Amino acid sequence: MPDDIVLIGPVRAGKSTVGKLLAGRLGLPQVSLDNLRYDYYREIGFDEAHAQNLRKSEGFVAMMYYRELFAAHAVERMLSDYQNCVFDFGAGIYESDEMFRRVQKALAGYPNVVLLLPSANVEETLKILAERDLNPPKDLSLDVSAHFLRHHTYYDLAKMTVYTQGKTPEESCMEILERVAIITENR
Q1: Domain 5-185 in CATH: superfamily?
Q2: pLDDT in tens, 20-78
């Protein structure tokens, strides 16, 4: 657990790409919450048909809030099921204090929780993320990326932040490896 690397951040921040590079460099598996979440959600009653009906009747944001009811469970299960990995968490945040506290508790023993962002400037980050998102949801009543970036979740969970603007994914990978090595040496 202590040497696992957990990547968090908004949609199109580079978590999957950098995660794959980190996993390759470290000889570890990459485990993506996006690939596991619905299996974990269904364990505690997630209803895909209900989620899709919510999206049709009330929009993407309503579906997103429904999915959040299951998000902390998915994180807890993934961290329980896998060790010695590079994790990427997908783009979710935790709106409710209860869900946030559960995820915070699950990550408490993980020193390498890395927030990936293009820039320290939120507006610049939003611009970059929008340019990368070639197929955004059309039924948004809320700018999800802006909401995620202005919410406390990422910042409160992260133990370090890596800014990727002007860097290749490989350079971002190497920065993370250098910073993780410094943390490991100082323990």
Answers
A1: P-loop containing nucleotide triphosphate hydrolases (3.40.50.300)
A2: 999 999 999 999 999 999 999 999 999 999 999 999 998 888 898 899 999 999 999 99
